[in-house]
Structure formats: structure tokens, C-alpha cells
Amino acid sequence: MPARRQKKKLFAQWKNDTLKPFQKKTPERQLAFHTASDKNIEPVYTELDQDEPGFELPGEFPYTRGIYPTMYRGRLWTMRQYAGYGTAEETNKRNKYLLESGQTGLSIAFDLPTQLGYDSNHPMALGEVGRTGVVIDSLRDMEVLFDGIPLVGVSTSMTANAPAIVILAMYVALAEKQGAETKNLRGTIQNDILKEYISRNTYIFPPGPSLRLTTDIFETCAKHLPLWNMISISGYHIREAGANAVQELAFTFADAIEYIDAALTTGLEVDSFAQGLSFFFSSGSDLFEEIAKFRAARRIYATMMKDRYGARNPKSLTLKFHTQTAGSSLTAKEPYNNIVRVAYQALAAVLGGTQSLHTNSYDEALALPTTESVRIALRTQQILAYETGVPSTVDPLGGSYFIESLTDRMVTDVEQELSKIEKLGGMRLAIEDGYPQRTIMEQSYRTFKAIKDREQTVVGVNRFLTKQDEELEIDIHFHSPELEEVQLRSLEKLKQERPNKEVIISLMKLKDRIRRGGNLFSYVYDCVKCYATIGEICSVMREEFGEYQQRITL
Amino acid sequence: MKPIRILIAKPGLDGHDRGAKILALMLRDAGFEVIYTGVRQTPRMISDAIIQEDPDVVMLSSLSGGHVAQFRQLFKRLEQKGVTDKLFLAGGIIPEQDYAELKSMGVAHIYGIHDDLDDVAKRIRTYFDLGKSSDAS
């Protein structure tokens, strides 16, 4: 075995004698090759590209290769399609269909009025009821949403952020009605407000009160819902807004630091809640960079939890994450091509060791998915799981010179970006400064121009185009205009049937608790239990907390 | 010559403003004066912004499906306020079956997901070069 110095000599020789003459005779296709985050890629990688090749194993610190020693040999990832539209009844049908088709977890999409704490009869809800997700006004809608689905047997993810505490309280109240014990409930509440200010813009309250709600949920989950993920710290939306892979990880971890610091400030011990922290990332089309990103994320997180926060429980060090394939990579032109894009992106997520996965449907650049398109998306995961052999060994690309080198570089680049945010005083102050918003917008504009100028290829869009008359017509999801009426009637009926006196008292108690301080969960819980609506509860909070005003960066 | 003033607004509750921002930057680079309202604008907020900023062009971005109801309120309000001399363009995710209705309200042209963004600047320039006499649809 030649020593490292000897290998370096051999490599230099190869470069001079073999590579360069060849490149001169037959030039490469491009002057340079880059990852999607614009990092240079060499013609070939060797062990010389790693400074200190470590000997890492899965299930052990720093968990680069996976958080469990057996990964998918023990249990496959959870196949979890984000779904929700129309009324609770319609979404209940879609979810049952997905479960019958072999999906292993639920993920609920709420409509925008629900996500912003407005009842469906609020003027702000005009035209939006049941459009981008299911409408939930009260616990009654949740009862319909999960009708015939025992909560003990399923893990449910819910994309609620600003009103997360209300949605979680409804879920807990529903579980108790079904006779389930909260300690057995499995699932995730997204509960990540910082990325809303940065990228998704579905905030209600200013950061201070919002973080109070976040940590109230942390405390509640740590005490009563040990199997529940109390937050899903999300890079997905940051990426979708235009960030690259490095920025996605850096901004997500900068958010994580704010949440952990906030929880520590309220007096929680890091090991008492860290197991409930989970993450959510995007999987884009640059296969190897994405795989490296997931591996790097685990290493960065484990190191951070150990060194920065002094966590001792090994479970506090492991980064658990959900992945969704990149919605922004889908094209409206030649939509069937999206099936192939999604398959590659799903492969990256699984080679990267994700715990759960949502695969987008091919028609999602056009509308919400149809039953048909969502089935293909789920089948894409099932083919990956049961036909390709990919899950048969842990971290199959570990040890690849290229992947290891990309992983190391991703760690370095993310740490560099993280230190920029630290210099601004952390993510909360960085958001006030507009730094992440500006960075994302600039990156998104660069990508846009690269596609426009055809420096970046999008097949079927800026290269290899189909003639207009050859374009396929596809059936897309149809939004039924009557459902808004149906929902308004049922809300009216609810207000006649529920114990209105209790509603008023519970809302007054909530208001008082907000003013006096202390955890709000049980007060919100009392409100939802007597069927106070999400709009009524959030309206009390709006009065007390105020509303956040967007900082427009352009 | 005074640059053409464009107001970009996002009606409705949707917060996905990547497209609106790209459009704003692109039009600014193309020499227009661009004002962006930010997200979550009610019909009242948009009409107030139009009256205050007095743009030549109003562009409405909608992705979440509430456009018909929201645009209807906006145009009703603008009519009451006597605002009619603007070029209204819309874009985002708007199904073709809604085009006729939006046009009858006063939207000159709707950009679909298949359209080339370069066309936006061209269309606006042509419209104003021809002294607003052209049909921008």
C-alpha cells in the first residue's frame, strides 16, 4: 500500500500524463462543473480529497451514516403524503384512500384561513376556504377529519405553525374522545414560526409571543406526549423560496438554535425535550449534493447538541427528519416528466437516510393532486422500497470519495453561513435585519436568470421542447365551489349547538392567563374542548399579542 | 421620460411570494419603477395602495385559488373610487376557465403557468408606446 505522499504523487502524474492530454484532445462538455449550490466539481475524487478520512458507523456519534445501526433493514421510512382539501369529510376520504393504498403515516394540509387562525366566515377567508388544504373551524371538524381512523394506530403530521397550539390541543382532545392515552400518540406538529418570517409568510403574532407558544408546546409535549415531535424545524420552505442547499441547512440550524435557547431560558433541560425536536428538508434534483446535505446535517446537529448544548442522552444528538421532494422543481410543461424528477429526488432522500418521505405528484405545478397522480407518487416510494434494493444496507454511498468529500464541504460551508448569522446576533435579529430574506431572494433571482439564460437546463422548459400542439392535456383537481357554503352552514349550526356559556368563560380564562403568564396549553385545550373555534381563540391571542408586520425586502 | 410605474400586489392569504419578487426584480432590471405591497393584501389594502401610489400598471399575483372572489371585491371598490385608468395584469396559478370572468372585471391579460415572463415587459411597453390605445389582452 503506497503511503499518502506516494498517492499524491501518483495522482499528480495521472493529472499530467493522462487527464490533461485527454482533455486537450477531447474537451469536456463545459468549462467547469458545479453543484446546484455552485460549488466546483472535480473530474474525479479520491481518498486524497478527505483530510482525515474518519471511520464512522451508523447509530453512533456523529451519526453521519444514519441515526440507527440498521436503518431501513429494521424499518422502512414512513411514507407520508401531505394531503388536505375541501371539507373535513373530503380529506377524511382521501386519507383513508391513502392508508388503504399502503401509506404508513398521515400528513394534514390545512387551508390558509385555518393556518392563519380565521374561521371560514371571516372576511379575510374570502375565496380561500378549503383551497390549499382542509378547513378546520373547531374540534367538530377534527372529529370528522379522523372519523374511522384510530389515532393510536397512526402517526400524524400536522402543518400548523402560528396556531399550532390550537391544532395540537384539538388533536389531544380528539384522542381523549377516542379513548386513546396521550402518552401513546405519535406524530408531529410543525410549530416552526421562524421560517414563516423568513420564507413562508404564514405568521400571525410577532416573534416574542410566537416563541412563547412554541416553548409552551415543548413543555407540554415533554411532559405528556413523549412520542410526539414537538416541532419540525423546516428547511423545506426556505429552499422552496429559493435558497440553495447550504443556505437551507444553515438557516434551519440557526432557527433550531433560537428554539433551543428559548426553551432553555424557560427552564427546560436540554435532554428533557431534545428528543422531540425533528426536522424537515427538501430533496432537490442534484442527487449527490442532496445526499451529502442529509449526511452533513446529521453530523452538524450531533456536534452542535453535544458541544454547544452539552446534551448527554444519545437520543438528543440524533437528527430525525422528514423529506419532501422539491415542489419548485416541478414543471407545468410536460407534467409527466415530473414523475421522473420526483423518483430521483426520492432516491436522494432515501440514500440520505430520511425518516419519512413525501413524494410530490406530477400535476402539482398546476393544482392540488388528483387521486390518480397521488397514487403514482406513493407507488414511486413503494417501488423504491420494495423493488430497487436500495434499503438493504445502511448508507450505501458512505465511503464514496465524492460523497464523503461533498459531505465534508457541506459541513464547512454550512458552519461558515451559520457564523454569519451568529455575528448578526442569531436568527431572530437576522430576520429583523432582513438578512435571510434578502439572501434567499437574491439566490432565487440568480436561479431564475440562469434558467432564463439557459445556463441551467430544465428539460421540456428551456431545452428539448415539445411543440405546442403536441402538448398533453391532463385532468387536474377540481375545486367544488359549494363547499364554502357547506362549511359556513356547519359553522353556524355548531354555534347553536355548543355550550356557548362555557365557550365564553374558557376564552376569558385564556385571555387572563395570557396576561398573567404561564403555559397556555391547558387553557387552549379547555377552549377547544367546548368547541370554541380556532378563529375565536386566535382572536383573543391577536388582541393580546398583536400581529406581525412583514418586513418587505426587495 | 418618466419610467412606467408598476404596483405588484398579492391578494389573499397565501405567503408564497417567490414569483412576485422575481417579477419585481426582473421588471426593475428592465427599467420600470416597481412597488411591491408584500403578502396578504385585502381588496381594501390593494385599492388604497393603488390610490396612494398611482401606478400605471397593477399586477396581481394569486396562487391559492381565491382570485375570483378577491378580484371581484377589488374591482368593485376601485369602481366606487373612480379608479379606471390602470393596466391590470394577473398571474400565478389561475385556471383558464376563470379567464373570461376576470377579464370582464377589468383584467387586461392573465399570465398562465406556460407563459414566458419576458412577455410581461414587452406587453407593458407596447401598451404604453401605442398610447394606451392598444388592446393589451
Automatic annotation (TrEMBL), chain A:
Highest classification ranks of the organism? Bacteria, Candidatus Wirthbacteria
Q: Tell me the superkingdom of the source.
A: Bacteria
Alphabetically, the GO molecular function entries are:
cobalamin binding; methylmalonyl-CoA mutase activity
Is Isomerase included in the keywords of this UniProt record?
A: yes
- PANTHER family listed in its UniProt record: METHYLMALONYL-COA MUTASE, LARGE SUBUNIT (PTHR48101:SF1), METHYLMALONYL-COA MUTASE, MITOCHONDRIAL-RELATED (PTHR48101)
The name this protein carries in UniProt is Methylmalonyl-CoA mutase
Listed A to Z, the keywords are: Isomerase
- Biological source species: Candidatus Wirthbacteria bacterium CG2_30_54_11
Methylmalonyl-CoA mutase alpha/beta chain catalytic domain: residues covered: 35-547
UniProtKB/TrEMBL annotation, chain B:
- Entry-linked Pfam families: B12-binding
**Entry-linked SUPFAM superfamilies:** Cobalamin (vitamin B12)-binding domain
Q: Which InterPro entries match?
A: Acid_CoA_mut_C (IPR006159), Cobalamin-bd (IPR006158), Cobalamin-bd_sf (IPR036724)
**From what superkingdom does this record's organism come?**
Bacteria
Keywords linked to the UniProt accession? Cobalamin, Cobalt, Isomerase, Metal-binding
Signal peptide residue numbers: none
Task: Name what cofactor the protein needs.
Answer: adenosylcob(III)alamin
Which residues does UniProt call coiled coil?
none
Which residue range or ranges hold the B12-binding domain? 3-131
The record's PROSITE patterns line, in alphabetical order, gives:
B12_BINDING (PS51332)
UniProt GO MF annotations: cobalamin binding; isomerase activity; metal ion binding
Name of the protein? Methylmalonyl-CoA mutase
